[in-house]
Design a protein that fits this description.
Oligomer: single chain
Protein name: Subtilase family protein
Mean pLDDT: 89
Helix content: 10-25%
GO molecular function: serine-type endopeptidase activity
Domain Inhibitor I9: 30-107
Radius of gyration: 28 Å
Domain Peptidase S8/S53: 128-578
Number of strands: 37
Distance between the termini: 63 Å
Active site: 136, 198, 527
Shape: globular
Number of helices: 19
Structural class: alpha/beta
Strand content: 25-35%
Length: 776
Amino acid sequence: MSKGGVLFLLYPLLLLALVLNCQCEERKLHIVYMGNKPEGDASVASAHHSMLHKVLGSPSSAKESLVHSYGRSFNGFAAKLTKEEATKISGMQGVVSVIPNRQYKLHTTRSWNFLNLTVNKVGAPQESNVIIGLLDTGIWPEHPSFNDTGYGPPPAKWKGTCSANFTCSNKIIGARYYNSDGEYYETDIPSPRDSEGHGTHTSSTAGGNEVSNASYFGLAEGLARGGVPSARIAVYKVCWSFGCGLADILKAFDDAIADGVDIISVSLGGDEPDDYFDDPIAIGSFHAMRNGILTSNSAGNSGPFPVSASNVAPWSLTVAASTIDRKFVARLQLGNGLILTGISINNFDLNGTSYPLIWGGSAANYTIGSSSDYSKYCLPGAMSTDIVAGKIVFCEALYDGSGILLANGIGTIMADVLVVDPDFAFSFPLPATLISPEDGHKVLDYIRSTDYPTATIFVSDAWEDAMAPIVVSFSSRGPNAITPDILKPDITAPGVDILAGWSPIAPPSIYYDDKRSTLFNIISGTSMSCPHASGAAAYVKAVHPNWSPAAIKSALMTTAHVLDPRKQPDLEFAYGSGQINPVAARDPGLIFDISESDYINFLCKQGYNTSTLRLVTGDNSTCTSTTPGRAWDLNYPSFSLYVLDGQKISATFTRTVTNVGAANSTYTASVFMPTTISVTVAPSVLTFSSVGQTISFTVSVDGPSISQQPITSGAITWTDGNHVVRTPLAVYNYIPGAPYNLESDTSYTTPTKKTVFKSSSIYHKNGIMRHLKTRP
């Protein structure tokens, strides 16, 4: 054989050897956080480039690797690195942390009135000076909620800009977009324009104009508006159809702070909390706080599991989701006259016409290998078109309706053993309602006992919910996994069945391929409650422009509407201080203010060292005089006392209040707590002689040894006859850092059958539908 022939035969082996010995690991995006804003913005990018050059070995590789430089408000960059390169950079001088890029999830005709913030209480001239910055999926600029008729130019403080492919206005005064991965799916638009709907919904909830006759295909018709209709809006698009990149989130914070926003609204987050300086939202909101900007965060949609709240940094506002006094009910009537009530946002009108009714299990598509075990869930492709066409189908699972729609069915009645008592509604691409499992048995019995069963589904009615407000099941719960001495969530706000603006090119229902178009949609999530809190914060900021972020947060928390603990076994772990009360928050009487140095002291007690803190703060902060310990002296407007099993209840908290009410006023403390726990406030009477005067007090909590006990709570309330300043107190057993979700414990597994959603509607992206992906 010739030499060439030998080489030809050996070539595949040589190639395989090269592949096996290749050390070229794929570079992945990492965030390099370096703390405080450097001196001189012009040199920031070159300094970052120089660091990469040292590690990567060449200027061209460094240039290719660098994705974002953060330097307008704090210092850092995003770059594509191997694990080895990331490790080398993490050891370089000035680096606080190196964080692998991940994808975060996207976590109102009636809601603002429910909060007593009625139309006649908004519209003050100073409200148009407030700028709300939203990190989300963008915005639909032509939406009537953002019409700028009657608006003057942006406030003089504004330093933001608008992307070249997007037209801003005097309402939407800034719009940027970020996509560090450089990938776009079919529905993504590379501009600040919203193709998902989520960002338009949150923006209009927080600061949308008044729009008359708004509705979701005729449902919930009325006047839609944001909390502060005359506020300005700045949009930072960080979320796409596939998620929200950490590197982009941090860059958006960098820009929003430098642009001059007053409130930052962030309706997104991870599945569980991260260490503060490994979390871009905690990092960004820390620097926002340093610049006088309050960040409002969604608590997450991982409830009702305990210890599931995300975005728990003490310098940000963590918002749970609760119901309003309206729920959507879709009734059905069987051919025997029986009427059953289900939960659904159903706008399809069958005009009372009855259609043949079948069980999904009798309509299997055997050609593709389906069976009754699959078709009873009405999964896409599992259904026989020949059998389903023209019929209403009873399905034994809550799904998006696509299985029946694609099989040419008329509608669907669903019952799910995992959803016994739904407390929020979905919209579907066809007539649909979700009934209880018990009523599901009635429907199935009727089908099996009748020769020609029929049914009809009625358009949804809006019923008054006398039990509201109640924290919804999906809203993430405390305690705080990172710092259990800080009670989280802070507060709750409307987040269930909220009508607000929508992108006309986004799917209007739970089904990702729903081609209908609407300018308003009704959806649920802590993503919806967060902009309510953001709007409330903007409402307070308008009349108190010089208040600190902590002061605004304190005002919202101490004036909150107290929720009925009998309706919520999780107590403050579900609702924090209670439901926001924006009107009362403008005049709280007393505030618990917190300075940057207070937060530095808090971080020292949490174990952060001096060198790390100096990188973050850029000053001479030191932890040498601080001993690591409990966070009982952070001037927080709530009290959280975790106790290890077998320990006695014993703690002393220190707080300082600032008088922002009448100059001459006297506040008297009252304590509500179960009798087994002793609470002493000293002094119990605070007398002020001027506005801005501060007085300190202590709260001593004592009680017996406890083990494996859930939350017990009460409150300390200060009153002067005009103001009520309430701070909750929670006592409970907890081991710091304990896992929130025992389902993730690999030592305990249950055989499951997975059903996978194709693509994604907003409910799949924000995590609410997660528990529906696993069926027994």
